[in-house]
Specification:
Distance between the termini: 64 Å
Largest sheet: 4 strands, antiparallel
Number of domains: 2
Strand order of the largest sheet: 4-1-11-9
Order of helices and strands: HHEEEEEEEEEEE
Strand content: 25-35%
Number of strands: 11
Helix content: 25-40%
Structural class: alpha+beta
Radius of gyration: 25 Å
Length: 183
Amino acid sequence: MKYGVPEERWNRMGEVERAATIEAYEERQRIARERREAELARAEALRHKKAQRIERIHHGDIWYHGALIRVTIRKGKVKIGKEFRQYRPVSFLIADRETKAMNLHRAGKGKRDYNQIWFSYRNNQLIADVGRGGRNARNGHVFYYEPAWSRAKHYRDVQFGTKSNIKSDGMVVSVEVMPRQHR
């Protein structure tokens, strides 16, 4: 196939017809390339706008109840390597519509001995174990908003791993809505 025309047909075409075919083909390619570039630019602008919004929430420039929560993971064991092991407690802030990864490091060991867990927070739902970039949210462990989040709600004996690669046993996950920050 040459310029979108089957080889047999191309061989039967005259020079003028070939030139017109090449010109039309190149025009279609240019239009398609411009559309792809415009779509990529729109997607990048959306990512940038989302990142700015998340940053503004973290800095306290945007606030509404539930815009920012603190998640703390402690106690229990997580599968690191081939065995369930103690891990270092971890606490982090996550904004509405943000997805982020946290590393659960083996207690007392170096930085390389860990298991990574992804979290996504949107629409008053914290979803743990959503996979890289939040791509597996359907199989994650969902924590639905409760008024107790205002004072820190502690979920005991949380177990991940029914549909994922991270396995845990006996974790305590605490979720707390952060109050308005005055800056």
